[in-house]
Amino acid sequence: MVLTQPDRRAGRGRRPAPSPVKQAATAASLPVGTPNGPADILPALAPMRVDALVVAAYGLLLPRRALDHPRLGCVNVHASLLPRWRGAAPVERAMIAGDTETGVSIMRMDRGLDTGPVYRRARLRIGARATGQELDNALSRLGAELLLDVLPNLAALTPDPQDGPATYAPKLGPHDSVADWRRSAVELDRRIRALAYRAPVRAGLEGTRIQLLSAMPRESSTSAEPGTILPSGRHEILVACGSGTLAIESLKVNRGKGRTMGPGDARNGFPGLFRPGARFQ
User: Fold this and answer.
1) CA-to-CA separations, 31 to 21, 59, 77, 114, 218, in angstroms, rounded
2) Which of 19, 193, 198, 255 is the most exposed place for a label (fewest CB within 10 A)?
3) CA dihedral in degrees (207, 179, 114, 75; nearest 10)?
């Protein structure tokens, strides 16, 4: 049985649409339940004798009775090397922090936030120019493979307690997407790459909101105030940071059609906005 979120309104008509999980389960002729929240999970499970409950990217703590219901417990597919990055946004937090490695942990759930013992771990290198979406997709594939290795042997496996210092990956909020030009260009680049597919980094420029979708850090130094657009070639937008400079490679302007543009098109279309000396807030 598959439990997933209720249908949400989507598209121009705002009609209820099933989640991708529900669509896949229906295509596979699997029974589907759509509980409205954690409190509805146990009633959905109660009529059945459940061997195991697998949780992936659910984002909420399960009630104790739901955790205790399956004969072999509840198994979580978590996208980090626990105990590093417990919580709701481990993929993005690892990238923003500059980690060079992450991975997947298959753990037995307990009442804490990703504190349960771990059955298996698999490591994955974070590429120097990887994006959040690329990393998320790679970890999803790795998690599925690792889960299929664990499930057939679940009754015979003994998970190991988590060892080492824990770090937390809190849920992403609006403040995470604000460009802080006082940071280094390297830090800003990591944040842009991590969040572009979910909650793009944004900055205000003379009252206009700009979404930053990709960029490249440079080591060049400048005495200009952080956020200042620097003199450069006609097909480049170069911005001063707290350390180094950031070359913006693609962006969206909250004007007109709001399409994705390269720096040359942005400067041609909005010459008064992206002029040297203008400063991002």
Assistant:
1) 12, 22, 21, 28, 53
2) 255
3) 70
Each residue of 11-67: pLDDT tens digit? 778 899 999 999 999 999 999 999 988 889 999 888 889 999 999 988 778 899 999
pLDDT in tens, 158-173: 999 999 999 999 999 9
CA torsion 27→32→36→40, rounded to 10°? -160
The tokens for 230 are 């620097």
Bridge pairing between strands 2-3 and 32-33:
parallel
Quick one: which of 59, 89, 83, 92 has its CA closest to 201?
92
Give the C-alpha distances (Å, rounded to integers) separating 27 from 56, 113, 195: 19, 32, 31
Instruction: Residue 13: count other Cβ atoms within 10 Å of its Cβ.
Output: 8
Q: Calculate the CA 112 to chain-centre distance.
A: 21
Alpha-carbon dihedral angle through residues 143, 149, 153, 158, given to the nearest 10 degrees: -50
Distance of alpha carbon 92 from alpha carbon 103, whole angstroms: 13
Are 143 and 91 within 8 A, CB to CB? no
Angle at 124 between CA 119 and CA 130, to 5 degrees: 145
Query: Are 238 and 232 in contact, with CB atoms under 8 Å apart?
Result: yes
pTM over 0.85? The answer is yes
